[in-house]
Each structure stands twice: as structure tokens, then as C-alpha cells.
Give the backbone structure.
Amino acid sequence: FGGGSNDFEAIRYEGYGPGGVAILVEALTDNRNRTAADLRAAFSKNGGNLGETGCVSWMFDRKGMVEIAGTVDEEKLLEVSLDGGAESYELLEGEDAQGAEVICEANDLERLSQALQGGDFSVVQAELRWIPTTTMEVTDTERARSLLKLMDALEESDDVQNVTANFEMGDELISQMLE
């Protein structure tokens, strides 16, 4: 981004949340020390710990994800996705969303996106994501609240671009928390 004192660098921070949940934080910063201090404070105030590089990244794979919107012909999706190098897909069917998320190796993202567009699918976004290789099921409402509070605190930092964690919550727990 040019020369001078306003150079930004992409940095990945790693840490643990309540209950040992693995958390990856991607940041774009012009001041590593400020960002590290902000994230360390967010982790410690919310029951987590900022860790060393490599402490949790081994629990995630870098993958390509293409999101498509609209009604999906699953047979056509499968055929086009395989031709585009996809590994898996998940249909999205909810009150607000219809479509699918299609996952591929990071190197196949452009190929997959173009294949889906060529197959007349409406591509909403194509991006690289960290996907957990294993997940932890959170069943306790207090731990769930703590984790969500930590995730929010991390995302509030101006330098943070993305926060990924390896926990899952069941629909029942989410509805209990909304009550």
C-alpha cells in the first residue's frame, strides 16, 4: 500500500476462549503492538488467552467458499460443483436465506466460482475462510454467553478483519439465550 509510515500488514493472531475453544483472528494493522495489546485485553477480559503463533492454527484448514443465492437444483449443483473442484456443499434453507455454500481447496476458488456462474447460479460471494477441522459442541448457556461476548469484543477492534472459532451451538441453546 505504498511507502511511508502508513503501511499496513496482515497479521493472524491465535488464542483460546472459555472452555478451550480455538480462535483465529485476522487483522490488518499499521501498529502491531497496539493491535496485540487490544486483542490481549479483549481475550483476558472475556475468559480467554491470546496464544503464540501456531497454538491453534493447526486445528483449521484454509478453504475457498462460494455462496450462491436462490432456489437450488441440487443435482445440477452437484454436477457443476464437482466440475469446478468442489469438496462439499451445504444447502441453506431458512427464513432469510435460500441457496448453498460450496467449499473447495483454496487454490480452486476462482475455478469453482466461475464454474458456478457459468452454470447459471447466482454467486453472492467467493472468499477464503478458515474452516475448523474439529469442532467443540457448547451446551452450557454461561459458556455460550462468554464465547459470544469474547467474539464480539474481538470483532469490535478496528484492525480486526475476521474472527473464526471452532465451536458449535445447537438451535435449542441459541433459543434459550434469546429468551
Observations:
- Helices lie at 32-45, 74-83, 109-118, 141-155, 171-178.
- The longest helix spans residues 141-155.
- The domain at 9-58+133-173 is CATH 3.30.70.980 (Alpha-Beta Plaits).
